[in-house]
Every structure is written in structure tokens, then in C-alpha cells.
Amino acid sequence: MYFLRNVYKNPKTFRKMTIMTPPLALGQTVHEVIESLSVLPVSQRFDKPLSESFDIVWKKIEGEKGGFKNSGQEEEFKSRGLAMLKNIEDNPGPIAKKAIKLRADGGLPYYWFSEEDNIILCGKVDWIEYLEKTDSVHIIDFKSGKFEEGKDSLQLPIYYLLS
What we know:
Blueprint: H1 2-7, H2 22-37, H3 50-58, H4 71-90, E1 99-100, E2 110-114, E3 119-122, E4 127-131, E5 136-140, H5 155-162
Antiparallel strand pairs: 1-4, 2-3, 4-5
Helix pairs in contact: 2-3, 2-4, 3-4
């Protein structure tokens, strides 16, 4: 298992393999629903309940595809996802404001950190809120897990470089 998670890369895509787990399935589904809002005009983002989109996206990872051991575990994670989206509907915050969508040629946004050492930073930014008054942006990373991000995490500074 260590080899598959940390060493093996698909010879065609050169990407590492990811084993689907319930937390990953939940995060992937919630993020996809939220991301789908960013391409809609602000006035249309909440025209239909987010649970409708969630149910459609959930079909991609239901059952064994999502790493669920049984229907009870799946229902627990599905309920958590629906609760997260209900919270967004009740308290939309930046989701109800203008957003910027990053475009990247052929994949994820990237930043050459060091051409000499061949180090490229890349990542997918969850949400970039456009702040009209200051003509600036607010980078937001949605967390669907139970654990807080460490204070010394480099994730948001890397996202800053990518945007």
C-alpha cells in the first residue's frame, strides 16, 4: 500500500495513485458543488437548493466507489455533506459575492518557484473572492474535514503565488 500511495506513478499521466476514502469522497463532492457556483452569476447561485447538485454529484462516488464500508457509513458522510451545504445556503458569506476563476493551460494553475532547481508549485484554489472596493482578492480554502489546518501550513501562501 505504501508503494501505491507514495511511490507509484501512472506511466501515462505521471500522477500518483489516490485510494478513495470516505473523507476524500465527501470533500471531493462538496468542493465540486461549491465550485459549480463560481461560474454562475451571483444572482443565480442559490436559485436551486445545493442539495440537488449534491445528489447528482454524489452518484459519482456512492457505494464502494467512495470507499464506503456499508450503507450506514455512506449515509453518515452524505448527511455531513448536506449539512455543510445547508450551512452555506444559510450563511453564504463570500459565496454570494463576486468571484474570480483562475484559468490554467492544460490543468492546474502553477508557479515556477525555482527554474534552476526545477521546482513548480501547483494547486487548485477553492474560491477567490473579488473585493471591489480595494480592487483586491480574498483567497479562500474550504475545509470539509474534521481537523483544523496548522498555523504553519504553506497552503494559503502557495495559493497566493498561484493567483
